[in-house]
Amino acid sequence: MRKLMTAFVLLGVSVAAGAERQPEEVYRARREALAQKAAGGVVLLVAPGERDAVDVLFGFRQDPNFFYLTGWTEPGAALLMVPATGGAGADGRPARPYTEIFFLPARNPSLEAWHGRRLGPDDPDARRRTGVERVEVIDTLRAELQGVFAEGGTLLTDTRPEAPAAAQIDWLRRAQAFPYYHTIADVRPLIAELRVIKDQGELALLQRSVDATIDAHLEAMRAVRPTLSEREVHGLMLSAMMRHEGCQRPGYGPIVAAGANSTVLHYKESTGVLHDGDVIKLDVGAECSGYVADITRTLPINGRFTSRQREIYDIVLGAQEAAIAAYEPGKSTIGRHAPHSLYRVAYEYIERHGLERYFIHGLSHYTGLNVHDPGDTTQPLQPGMVFTIEPGIYIPEERIGVRIEDMFYIAPDGALVNMSRRLPKRIEDVEQIMGEAARERTKATGR
Ligand SMILES: [Mn+2]
User: Fold this and answer.
1) How far is the CA of 267 from the centre of ligand 1 (A)?
2) Residues 6 or more apart from 414 whose CB is under 8 A from it?
3) Residue 134 contacts by C-beta under 8 Å, 6 or more apart in sequence?
4) Cα(87) to centroid(ligand 1), Å
5) How far is the CA of 265 from the centre of ligand 1 (A)?
6) 3-state DSSP call for residue 49?
7) Which of 70, 105, 226, 372 could form a disulfide with 276 if both were Cys (CB 3.0 to 4.6 A apart)?
8) For the whole prediction, is pTM greater than 0.90?
9) How far is the C-alpha of 208 from the C-alpha of 206, rounded, in Å?
10) Closest CA to 381 of 200, 196, 192
């Protein structure tokens, strides 16, 4: 832990009681990189409102793109990035430098009574805390846009109809009838190009989520036994991950699936009970400081795999190892149909064992602020990319579903690094941990 803390200090990640922010200059550099990609377009990002992204258990979750560019975790904000215009031309109009404006809702004491203190645009430390030079009240956003688009231009924003930006720019869409021409384009692909490469601070935050998730899986490995319910196992895993500082919530709907449920890829009910002789599939990950880990293990409920379960398990593990061994820096991809695909390697391994019709999903996805992080999966893996390798075989007629999922990153020298290697997965290691835990339980209860 001390080593990890040292790493955080070195990387400038400030460790607070809650979520951590990276240094201001990191977010500013991301905004500037996005402004480059926007090539003269105006960028508008809008955070969800107080009620739009609230989980009853875990509270408000910031929009990942908004968080990536600002580190801001409060609701209702907006960010406007306006490109520079050239020097005074023949018409005498003044040049405008590149401008960033951060918009905040006006403070609302009655809302704060319910949700707590929020930063307001008039707070003296608004600029310091947002990291943006100009902070305005969000009511002025429309007037600001009207000024910027007085002569048309391109607005880059989240164009999904359900995105918070939609309400803010509805009038602009309708204003298409005005004489000056403007276009609205999707900003998300440009941000995805940035997000797919993680910086050192992000890798440290992701490692922290992975470490919390590993502890959750170890907790389950020691606890799993017949008669427990799926929900109890899930509760134990949640408790273990929440012990880690900065861990806020599960990274995604946890899959805790025993027996026949293990053959359902995204089983979410957790209503089952653990039976002697079955396996349990645990696809559970933590979100810490916004970054999500995604790890899966499959355990024998009574502590010992049957010979058939072993057979399937070792094929899944062999497929994962084959994909890892096949990795080539600057060449391998994770896309299902991409050239030099690691998926292909894993698929062919399972095919050689005659079970390919039971491997029915992809092998990998990027991971970051989203469990399925955006990014082009046909491009060769590059330093800073973080992704899963997760083959699986699901045989409903035998009640056996096995998935093994680890998280990896590509180091600066191109090496493939397993971020979750501390979590055992070889059959003998898993059985040993489960056996020791069972013996300790017997000793403790005298039974
Ligand atoms: Mn996954």
Assistant:
1) 13
2) 329, 330, 383
3) 99, 100, 101, 102, 127
4) 50
5) 11
6) coil
7) 226
8) yes
9) 5
10) 196
DSSP-derived 3-state class of residue 442: helix
CA 303 – ligand 1 centroid, Å: 25
Which residues, other chains included, contact 104 with Cβ-Cβ below 8 Å and sequence gap of 6+? 74, 76, 77, 118, 119, 120, 121, 126, 130, 135, 136, 137, 138
Q: How far apart are CA 183 and CA 159, in angstroms?
A: 11
Distance of CA 217 from the midpoint of ligand 1 (Å): 15
Cα dihedral 280, 281, 287, 292 in deg (nearest 10): 160
Element (H, E) at 371: none
Around ion ligand 1, residues with a beta carbon closer than 5 Å are: 294, 388
Sign of the CA dihedral with 422 first, then 428, 434, and 435 last: negative
CA of 184 to the centre of ligand 1 (A): 33
Q: What's the gap in Å between 410 CA and the centre of ligand 1?
A: 17
Amino acid letter for position 127: R
How far apart are the CA of 113 and the centre of ligand 1, in A?
39
Tell me the pLDDT tens digit for each residue of 396-445.
999 999 999 999 999 999 999 999 999 999 999 999 999 999 999 999 88
Distance from the alpha carbon of residue 365 to the mean position of ligand 1, in angstroms: 7
Token pair 């030099």: residue: 340
149-196 pLDDT tens trace: 888 889 999 999 999 998 888 887 776 555 467 889 999 999 999 999
Q: Do the Cβ atoms of 328 and 340 come closer than 8 Å?
A: yes
CA of 362 to the centre of ligand 1 (A): 9
SS3 category, 79? strand
C-alpha of residue 239 to centroid of ligand 1, in Å: 21
User: Do strands 59-60 and 78-82 pair parallel, antiparallel, or not at all (unpaired)?
Assistant: unpaired
Only one residue has tokens 């590993």, namely: 214
